[in-house]
Amino acid sequence: QVQLVESGGGLVQPGGSLRLSCAASGTIFRINAMGWYRQDPGKERALVAVVTSGGSTDYAESAKGRFTISRDNAKNTVYLQMNSLKPEDTAVYYCNAMAHIRRYSPEYRYWGQGTQVTVSS
Fold it and tell me: What three-state secondary structure class fits 40?
């Protein structure tokens, strides 16, 4: 019912920047929180940043001061501005949305397919 499509990943040198975008589409009544997770091989997905519909944000410790999450509610799009990238930021980044497809439907977690971010000189 809700599709998330990420873009903006790629190869960047240490210290460089990337901006990830994630657009939600489909049957959507309301998107509550949207966020970005990362996943390394053999590990569980870990929260990088999250933003609520009201604009409250939270970041992983490694992202604080370097990454900025924002959203355009009218476009159902969330962004992750990634600055001062480090090799340890290399991972697959997944977009996440907590959404209601109808006014009184339950809230479910939806995932994008992921976008690769590689930081290497």
Answer: coil
